[in-house]
Write a structure and sequence with these properties.
It is a single chain. Strands 1-2-3-4-5-6-7-8 form an 8-stranded parallel β-barrel, surrounded by 6 helices. The protein has 217 residues and is an alpha/beta fold. The chain has a single domain, classed as Aldolase class I (TIM Barrel, Alpha-Beta Barrel), CATH 3.20.20. It binds SN-glycerol-3-phosphate.
C-alpha cells in the first residue's frame, strides 16, 4: 500500500519524505489556502520534495475552464497529478487528461457508483472520503470494501486512494481491504510510528545501558 501525505506544509512533507515511506502528496484548496503561500509556487516546492504524484486541484466547475487550469498546473512539474471533483464536468476533464497521459485524481467520492464512473472515465486515482462519511454516521470503510470488490470484478486499473483519513484504524482497515493508497494528515502518519511499549522498551534499555557507564561514540 502506498502512503501519501495530505498536506501542503512543505516542512512536514520534507520530514516525512526523509523516512523513505512517502510515495506522494495530496493537497486540496483548503490545505493550499492553509499553507498561506502562492499556490503555484508551493505546488512546485512540493513536487521537488517527492518523486511520486502530487495532487493539485482545479477550482473551476466547468470542463473548459478546468482544462485551462489543468494546463497551467501540469506544466509545474512532471509529477503533478490533476485533481478534479466527481461531477460530469470533472469526469469529462478526467477523460481528456488521462487520454493525453496526464495522471488524474478524482476527488470528493462518496459512493461506489461514483467510483465506478470515475474508473470508466480512466481515472488514475479515485479518492473516497472515509472520515467525512464517519462524521455523518456511516462507516466509511464499507465504501472502500465496495469499491475494491467492483474494481476487482472488472479489473479496473484505477487506484483506490483512501482519503479523509482520521486515525490509524482507517489505515489498518485500508491495508486489510487492499486499498492501493492512503492519504493522511502528517499527525496521523506520525502516530503510526508510536506504541507505548516501544517507548517503555527504549526507556528500560537506556536505564540499563546507563548503569554500564559506557558510550558508543
Ligand atoms: O484531501 C482530501 C481529504 O483527505 C480531505 O480530508 O479531513 O478534510 O475530510 P478531510
Amino acid at each position: 500500500m502506498k502512503f501519501f501525505v495530505d498536506t501542503a506544509d512543505t516542512a512536514e512533507i520534507a520530514d516525512l519524505a526523509a523516512t523513505g515511506l512517502l510515495d506522494g502528496v495530496t493537497t486540496n484548496p483548503t490545505l493550499s489556502a492553509k499553507a498561506g503561500k502562492d499556490f503555484i509556487e508551493v505546488t512546485r516546492e512540493i513536487c521537488a520534495l517527492v518523486d511520486g504524484p502530487v495532487s493539485a486541484e482545479v477550482v473551476a466547475l466547468d470542463h473548459a475552464t478546468m482544462m485551462r487550469e489543468a494546463e497551467v498546473l501540469r506544466k509545474i512539474a512532471d509529477n503533478v497529478c490533476i485533481k478534479v471533483p466527481l461531477t460530469i464536468d470533472g469526469l469529462k476533464t478526467c477523460k481528456a487528461l488521462t487520454s493525453e497521459g496526464t495522471q488524474v485524481n478524482v476527488t470528493l467520492c462518496f459512493s461506489a457508483n461514483q467510483a465506478l464512473l470515475a474508473a470508466k472515465a480512466g481515472a488514475t486515482f479515485i479518492s473516497p472520503f472515509v472520515g467525512r462519511h464517519d462524521d455523518n454516521g456511516f462507516d466509511g470503510m464499507y465504501l472502500i470494501r465496495d469499491i475494491r470488490l467492483i474494481y476487482d470484478n472488472y479489473a479496473f486499473e484505477t487506484q483506490i486512494l483512501v482519503a479523509s483519513i482520521r486515525h490509524g484504524v482507517h489505515v489498518l482497515e485500508s491495508a486489510r481491504i487492499g486499498a492501493d493508497v492512503i492519504t493522511a494528515p502528517p499527525a496521523v502518519i506520525k502516530g503510526l510510528f508510536k506504541h507505548v511499549l516501544t517507548d517503555k522498551g527504549i526507556e528500560g534499555f537506556l536505564a540499563d545501558w546507563a548503569k554500564t557507564g559506557q558510550s558508543i561514540v
